[in-house]
Amino acid sequence: QVQLVESGGGLVQPGGSLRLSCAASGSIFSINAMGWYRQAPGKQRELAASIHSSGDTNYADSVKGRFTISRDNAKNTVYLQMNSLKPEDTAVYYCNVDGWLSPFNALNAWGQGTLVTVSS
Questions:
Q1: 100-120 pLDDT, tens per residue?
Q2: 3-state DSSP assignment of residue 75
Q3: In whole angstroms, what is the distance from residue 38 CA to residue 118 CA?
Q4: Residue 95 near residue 70, CB atoms below 8 Å
Q5: For the segment 21-78, what is each residue's pLDDT rounded down to a tens digit?
Q6: Do the beta carbons of residue 119 and residue 91 sit within 8 Å?
């Protein structure tokens, strides 16, 4: 069974930085993409950043230039470096992995969520 364990959330002041980590464990045949979604209270979930197996990245306009997504393929781990944090970045951040458990069994798994609070 695949599990995604997130860490790195917490309370930071505006302008500060945090680095989120998400480690996938279990048998994974291949990974198509990994990403970070976030959901603030009263708002729908949105994709903050994603990284494809090719290395191509995608960012929401609201975080572009401030967030950087990266990966360690050997460890099946994805990171989100968040700089110049703003109060509007406050949300629960969820890691997502899209891939395959086997050639005939697709994988789409979610982490437990980690809370990022940006406040003075």
A1: 999 999 999 999 999 999 999
A2: helix
A3: 14
A4: no
A5: 999 999 999 999 999 999 999 999 999 999 999 999 999 999 999 999 999 988 999 9
A6: no
Cβ count within 10 A of residue 120? 8
Which residues are CB-neighbours of 118 under 8 A, at least 6 positions away? 11, 12, 13, 14, 16, 85, 86, 87, 88, 89, 90
Contact assessment for residue 91 and residue 116, using Cβ atoms and an 8 Å cutoff:
yes
Give whole-number Cα distances, 16 to 26, 28, 36, 63, 87, in Å: 34, 35, 19, 14, 11
- Structure token digits, residue 70: 């990266």
Q: Which residues contact 41 (CB under 8 A, 6 or more apart)?
A: none
Q: Does position 1 have pLDDT exceeding 90, yes or no?
A: no
Q: Which two tokens stand for residue 23?
A: 């480690």
The span from the CA of 82 to the CA of 15, in Å, is 10
DSSP readout, 76-98?
Answer: TEEEEEE-S--GGG-EEEEEEEE
